[in-house]
Amino acid sequence: MKKMIILFLIIYLSSFSFAYMWENVGPSDLQVNNFNTVFYNILVEILCSSDGILINEEGNWVEYPYSGLPAWKAIGLDPNNILVLLGDGSWSDGIYKFNLSTHQFDITEWIPFPNFMLYCTTNNTYYAGGLYGMWESTDGMNWSEIVYFSLKDCVAMAYFENHFVVSADNEIYYSHDSGATWNLVQPGSPLISDLAFHANGTLYGIFPGPSNSSGLWSSNDFGESWNVEFYSNFMSSVELDAENNIFVGWELPGTDGFASWDPINLEFEFFNDGLPNFNINKITYNPYIESLNIVCCTDSGAYMLTDYVGVGIEDKEVVVSNYKLGNYPNPFNPTGADHSPGTTICFTAEKAEDVENAEITIYNIKGQKVKTLRISNTEHRTSNYESVTWDGTDENNHPISSGVYLYQLKVDGKQIDTKRCLLLK
What we know:
The chain has one helix and 36 strands. Strands 1-26-25-24-23 form a five-stranded mixed β-sheet, with no helix packed on it. The protein has a four-stranded antiparallel β-sheet with strand order 2-29-28-27, with no helix packed on it. The N terminus is likely disordered. Strand 28 and strand 29 form a beta hairpin. 1% of the residues lie in helices and 47% in strands. The longest helix has 4 residues. By secondary structure, the chain is an all-beta fold. It folds into two domains: 287 residues, 7 Propeller (Methylamine Dehydrogenase, Chain H); 100 residues, Immunoglobulin-like (Sandwich). 37% of the residues are buried.
């Protein structure tokens, strides 16, 4: 039975009240398939284009092609190398190690018609999928085929803790034990081309193309069952920013372009003004900069938006002008050279008594809670300034991996401010 296309309420805010601006990320004369970032000793920004990769080297974007192959994804391997997924159906398709100093490409695994590559922090494993299966590697150099997906067209993959979801052969497969065992969604599932998890565990997926089922779908049980969020043709990508705002894109010029999606109120907010190209190939963001941001990769360059909060997306932070929050050093080591215990998170409250009701919560970049740092009670407190230290461990005092983390100040249970810090090892 054909499903009726639902009508959406689209709210346009007055341009006299709010304004936003798109900024170029790299050249605007090339097709960009993806924008990726890696941080080891320095921040490396990478554009995956139709003819290899471009790297931002001190403000200059330098192109590094390889045999005319398009690049689809770049992720970190070690401080000197990245992994790049290259290919479009040639004998050279696969995963390549790219040395950031010598600029040399070296093959690590042949994968015909590659579709995706990701690094899973749950089990510290790399995954890649293509037309004829899926592969895994614990070191990025030695890969083995996952027999369960042999000869399946593996299109997309996402994970949330130990829950893995793979779209392959127009079906959805899920695992609740980090890929040890797999299950097929029954009876049938939507055709999904792009996947993204919300911090609350909700999974979003794009049903592409022109059909009665095309649009944005979601799953609240880690891929086992699916519901439609909205119907729309020719969608291409879904992504969530660092604060879990949902963004969607379309793949054909003259269609809908780029928008945020509010699943509670069932509302779009479009951000097409100033975006030069509405053919959205991929939506991503840069987790290593202070500003909240989202990046559109299009057929004529990549573009970043940083000032969209308050335009169509509600700012969820409680704005209290008399509070100040920060940390030092930033970036930081779990134990510094002087044996300091990581980083000091300090804040100034409105009143001294507010300090007693304050707490600092650490989150990872996906919005999952890592640790809560509580303020010690002090009798007859007179100062409205306080500081706590974080040593780079979780609630069980286990060391956590390098990366960007969010620390949030709450007073009396109300969110006051959120800042970012960078943990390096």
